[in-house]
Amino acid sequence: MIEARSLSRSFGGFIAVDNVSFAIPTGCVVAFLGPNGAGKSTTMRLLTGYLSPSSGQALVGGLDVATDRERASVILGYLPENGPLYPDMTPEAMLRFVGGVRGLIGGDLSARIERVATLCALREVLGKPVQKLSRGYRQRVGMALALLHDPRVLILDEPTAGLDPNQVEQVRSLLRDLAKDRTVLLSTHILSEVRAVADRVLLISRGKLVHDGTRGSLGEDEAAMESRFRELTGHEPAKMS
Fold first, then answer.
1. Region 155-174: what's the mean pLDDT?
2. Considering the domain 1-75+152-241, what is its CATH architecture?
3. What is the pLDDT at residue 235?
């Protein structure tokens, strides 16, 4: 459902994403890890069609997002890092606006808003201007917008950023439920999040994919995962076997 084929992106002489390849099937939650500046967000923007690759292909549901972005967007929900919201609008107004852009109308749109407001625990703030909401609530508005059209593929950049521990657990539970019949790729730097929700881990460093394995492939606990993370990203010397 999500596939990167020799995906690369350069900005001038700087290579942000360097020949990255992976494929993610339906019903899988994949955590996308890497140090700051490693290329995570750029890769996600390539996979959603917000950026065009310098070379290679990004596909969602078999559709090349660079050449068939409109059809790909029907099955894709995207939560960007610090997603843009209209501060003067309420969450309900934003959901209605985005729903209308996506072709949802009348009772169908109202039912979808009701559904995502419940899933993302937004009911009590639906009528408040976004600019008056906490960072955590704004993040949940972004999640609701990504889920509104019931997409089969979700690409989420730091979905629990700014949330309190109770909200984090709600999002993790939601992701586990969504993954039963969807594909989820989420960027995070929180190793406990990997252990809590991910089936598989991708690790990028300096634009290159340096690890692709199961949840336990980085280690059995957070200390082991942190050590392996540092090793793979060049922050400590590799141990001799």
1. 84
2. 3-Layer(aba) Sandwich (3.40)
3. 63
Are 78 and 45 spatial neighbours (Cβ–Cβ below 8 Å)? no
Q: Residue 180: its pLDDT value, please?
A: 81
pLDDT in tens, 107-142: 999 999 999 999 888 999 999 999 999 888 898 899
Q: pLDDT digits over 40-66, tens only?
A: 999 999 999 999 999 999 999 999 999
Report domain extents, the chain. 1-75+152-241, 86-150
pTM of the model: 0.90
